[in-house]
Amino acid sequence: MLIILLTLSAIFFFIIILLTESIGGYSIIKTLYSEDFLSALRISLLTSTISILISTPPALLVSYVLARSGGRISMITESLISIPYSMTPVALGGLILLFLTQTWIGRTLDSLFSFVFNINGIILVQSILAFSTMVTPMRAVFESIDIGYEEFSRSLGHKWLSTFVNIVLPMARRGILSSIALGFLKAFSDFGATIMIAGMIIGRTATLPATIYVEIGSGNIDIAYALILILMIISLIINMFIRSIRGEVL
Amino acid sequence: MKKFHIKDLLIIRGRLRLEVEDLGIDVGEITVLQGPNGSGKTTLLRSLVGLLTPERGFVKVDDKIVFKKYDRIEINLPPEERDIGYLPQNIYAFPHMTVYKNIIYSIKTRKRRIDDEKIRRIAEELIELAGLRGEEDKYPNQLSGGQRQRLALAMVLASSPKTLLLDEPFSHIDPEFRQELRREIKALIKRFNIPTLIVSHLHEDLEIADHVYHIRNGGVYKKIL
Fold first, then answer.
1. Any chain B CB within 8 A of the CB of A166?
2. 0.90 exceeded by the pTM?
3. Helix ranges restricted to H, A70-220
4. ipTM of this model?
5. Could you report the per-residue pLDDT of B48-84, keeping only the tens digit for each?
6. Cβ-defined contact of B92 to A170 (cutoff 8 Å)
7. Is the distance from CB of B137 to CB of B98 less than 8 angstroms?
8. Among A9, A73, A179, B70, which residue's CB has the most CB atoms within a 10 Å radius?
9. Which residues does A99 contact at the CB level (< 8 Å), separation at least 6?
10. Which residues are within 8 A (CB) of A168 and not within 5 positions of it... i.e. 6 or more apart?
11. d(CA B94, CA A170)
């Protein structure tokens, strides 16, 4: 599977290079070693990974409760949770920024954790986006598991937590992994919400998407091109990973 | 009072109304409860296990009151604390675990303090008794219907229940294998000496019964054999 994945990625990469008239492949490869590119990649990977670690446990619990409770309250709660995922990222970023700067709770939180113009702000925004993205698919996964397994486990003498950890999570593992990958992709590729909170300070708060914007604006086409390619390849790999764990391809 | 005892139990679920005035089962006895489809047999078992809450009544398992409600709920233990082994109509052996791991998971519940060596010995004994020797590394979906049913019963027995409730245990089994499985399950129950309530709509299941009850007009009545 890995060989097919790498081959496809390489073909994709070289097609893009061949189609490029303005710059050569050598220039792109040189860019991959540049400080701007490496720092953007480092910030994006670091913040997305931390965001997923923060948002996955609550997403699992909330989606499980939603799946098992049902009814109108559950539907309304899920709709509210989906707002960050479905609204325009800039508006979400604006909303969080206003909360952090215009309310006393927000200002207190910001003075404690330094969100605005800081890498912590990226983690905050990405965590909200990842959580919002993961809840709906995770709920669907939990709903697909017959509640009879949980009832049987409890009648055997296992408490709820033991049943959740030993029965529900392993049975739902494929769907959970696929949801986490979707959440990671959403966090990793966000631009609008992230720059509203953290800005685009190269080497400090500029993620890969933000750096593309900065580099194109500065006329550094080589770097921008390399960043776009890397972003596309990462998206391709994660999408193929999602499909492979769903058993759709490979 | 018998080891497993139900008194004045009233269950109302939608249009269903079921009343059990007095039903007791002693150790090693098998009681079969018969009734037509939709008469509330499964609902009764789910209420006894603690998956549903009856309107009122009293349920005692061994020397422990697991449910008591008259004017208000006094006792209503969750399923994991009732010491009731429940074999649902559908087989719920865990699909991601092998036969051996399913048994181990079922032992490591009410017996957390026992050491690994003893857990292994109990598991081996149950696998032998359930006729699953040689199938330990298989997953439930690799077993036949009868083997899956025996695995599920072995899992229930592994949890050391003080009472057994079996919901239509033979209805999914091919008719030609039912007789043999019925005999095997009866032998297992007698060996473990546990009060057992089997609900069934199959007339042939009466042959393993020590006592028979039936549901009529929303009530549960004893049938004189």
1. yes
2. no
3. 71-81, 83-86, 89-102, 104-113, 119-143, 147-155, 160-163, 169-171, 173-189, 192-198, 208-217
4. 0.91
5. 999 999 999 999 999 899 999 987 778 999 999 999 9
6. no
7. yes
8. A179
9. A105, A106
10. A64, A142, A145, A149, A150
11. 10
